[in-house]
Design brief:
It is a single chain. The chain is an alpha/beta fold. The chain has a six-stranded mixed β-sheet, with helices on both faces. α1 links the parallel β1 and β2. The longest helix has 16 residues. The chain is globular. Bound molecules: inosinic acid. The site of inosinic acid (IMP) has 17 residues, from β3.
């Protein structure tokens, strides 16, 4: 089976491709079809994941998988949430988003910098699938005081997973996938995969 991966985010694509190996499907990034990401107009991770998967499935007439994810920071009332990719502006870089986050938390002590990543992953068998498969996952942690590590992507240099002394950007790709929100969401989705 060929499945379109509805993301243009290279960090996500890398992690999803590693996590999807057990399915034995052929994954094709939507960029191979020249698909531009649709506007993410949903209010929730689930709505946005469905928008992206259906958009890719409609254009390719193939099954599609999409991840919508983000960071919820308690001291910021859950922000940046669904706006995580564009926290510092429409085409903000990861470094700009991290800088904005550090600024927003400048006066917040470490023990109050609790946060979690969330991911929702959906699979649609085609553009008119009425029963998409859905998996969700969360990863608890803290926002650090300064960036550390060169792995992962996005907010990983600032995200200190609960129970760890380092950041998500200091984990190997396999170690991150084993404990991350994305890994958990994918495993939940695979548990519902028809066999
Ligand atoms: P989306 O493409 O709207 O789902 O954007 C998700 C955004 O959330 C990314 O661009 C990152 O800023 C952030 N994010 C989601 N998952 C991760 C992760 O595993 N590590 C770091 N940042 C993440």
């Amino acid at each position: 089976m060929r499945v379109v991966v509805a993301t243009g985010n290279r960090g996500k694509l890398r992690e999803l491709a590693a996590l999807l190996v057990p399915l034995g499907v052929e994954l094709v990034p939507q960029s191979d079809f020249g698909i531009e990401p649709p506007p993410e107009t949903g209010a929730t991770f689930l709505e946005n994941a469905l928008i992206k998967a259906r958009h890719a499935a409609r254009i390719t007439q193939l099954p599609a998988i999409a991840d919508d994810s983000g960071l919820e920071v308690d001291a910021l009332g859950g922000a940046p949430g669904v706006h995580s990719a564009r926290f510092a502006g429409e085409s903000a870089s990861d470094a700009e988003n991290n800088e904005k986050l550090l600024g927003a938390l400048a006066s917040v002590p470490h023990e109050k910098r609790t946060a979690r990543y969330r991911a929702v992953i959906v699979f649609v068998s085609g553009p008119n699938d009425l029963m998409p498969l859905i998996g969700e996952g969360a990863w608890e942690g803290h926002i650090g005081l300064a960036p550390r590590g060169a792995g992962g992507f996005g907010y990983d240099p600032l995200f200190e997973p609960a129970g760890s002394t380092g950041t998500a950007a200091e984990l190997t790709p396999a170690a991150k996938n084993a404990v991350s929100h994305r890994g958990a969401a994918l495993r939940a989705l695979l548990a519902r995969w028809p066999r």
